[in-house]
Description:
- The chain is an all-alpha fold.
- The protein is 70% helix and 0% strand.
- The longest helix has 28 residues, at 183-210.
Amino acid sequence: MSERTRLWGVAAALLVGLSPSLVAAGRQVWAEPRLWYVVAIWALFARAITRSRRTDPVAMSPGSILRAAPWIVAAVLIQLLSWAGGFPQVSRLAVPLALIGFTTGLLGVPLRVSALALLCLPPPHFLTQWVGLDLADLWARIAGAVVDGAGNVPRSTWDGGVRTLALTGAFVWSHWSVKPGPVNRLALGLLAALGLTVAAQVLTFVVAGVLPTDLAAIWLVHLCWMVVLGACFVVPGIRPGARAETIHAD
Length: 250
């Protein structure tokens, strides 16, 4: 059996075996437009995998079913236990584990790169409910000091910054993991991402406060995270290693 045939075979088996988890995750994202930002993280994940395989072949390891097995078994167990226990929404956590197993175990991609799969699905509801709405209210109050209507903008747990932090964190991690440098460079990048997240959430409510109601709703749901993603490409410090790559190119 050729390498390509084996990869396609395992991929097909995972799609079939984890179809309940994939369907549950897909339904969650489709039902809540505020979660569509994960499309951008999937794109960052695919880009990091492709760049790692092309630019850092030394770090690649030979593919092996044995290396993939622990991750895939864990994914299957999570799916079975969550559905059997009556918590089907938890089964979506099986998807990133299966992705890590496939990319690290069979493609030989370093774990530091494949771990980005953990951000490819929205955070659990208990996390967003724990920090989301309280922070959204705080950012709205701060924005209300700048624009009168900003404090009264309708908001949900996803407006607290969890979504934006996942997006900016994934951006930083995807760049650092492909060609890793010192850990402090990653830490500085994540710190810059946190700063961008806070500023973005406050400005999101400021802008929403001056927009007509219909346009403000579109801004809060879709446009705000797209603007943040675009800002990630231009804000200094948000991409760790950019300066080092420039020096190397010179």
